Amino acid sequence: MAATLDLFSLRGRVALVTGAGRGIGATIAAGWARAGAAVACLDLDGDTAEATATTVRDADATAIGLQQTSPTPAPFAPPSTARSPS
């Protein structure tokens, strides 16, 4: 497995993983850390983001947990591109 990680090395890189508090995002954060990246774990729930970052750090990698904040929710699609049902 070490040879595979060498092919996909992220040493010296920083990865920002959104949705890193659980599920696929947490798994991606851990995988990129194993590949050598320093990982910023971003999630709407700051506690779960920090929990993922702690798990990554416990595996001797560099990570920080960050809570994603937004003053207003972003719309799914800009009004000019939204289509009404026909």
Give a quick summary of the entry.
The chain has helices at residues 2-7, 23-34, 46-58; strands at residues 14-18, 38-43, 63-67.
Q: Could you walk me through the main structural features you see in this protein, from its secondary elements to its overall organization?
A:
The chain has 86 residues and is of the alpha/beta class. The protein has one domain: 3-Layer(aba) Sandwich (Rossmann fold), CATH 3.40.50.720. Helix content is 36%, strand content 19%. The chain has 3 helices and 3 strands. The longest helix is centred in the middle third of the chain and has 13 residues, at 46-58. It starts with a helix and ends in a 19-residue tail after the last strand. The mean pLDDT is 86.
Mean pLDDT: 86
Assembly state here? Answer: single chain
Widest beta sheet: strand line-up: 1-2-3
Basic shape = globular
Radius of gyration from CA coordinates: 16 Å
Biggest sheet details: 3 strands, parallel
Q: Given the helix and strand composition, which structural class is it?
A: alpha/beta
CATH homologous superfamily placement: NAD(P)-binding Rossmann-like Domain
Which range best describes the helical content: under 10%, 10-25%, 25-40%, 40-55%, 55-70% or over 70%? 25-40%
Number of strands: 3
CATH class: Alpha Beta
Low-confidence stretches: none
User: Helices and strands, in N-to-C order?
Assistant: HEHEHE
User: Number of helix segments?
Assistant: 3
How many domain regions?
A: 1
Distance N to C terminus: 52 Å
CATH topology descriptor: Rossmann fold
**Residues in β-strands, percent:** 15-25%
Give me the CATH architecture, please.
Answer: 3-Layer(aba) Sandwich
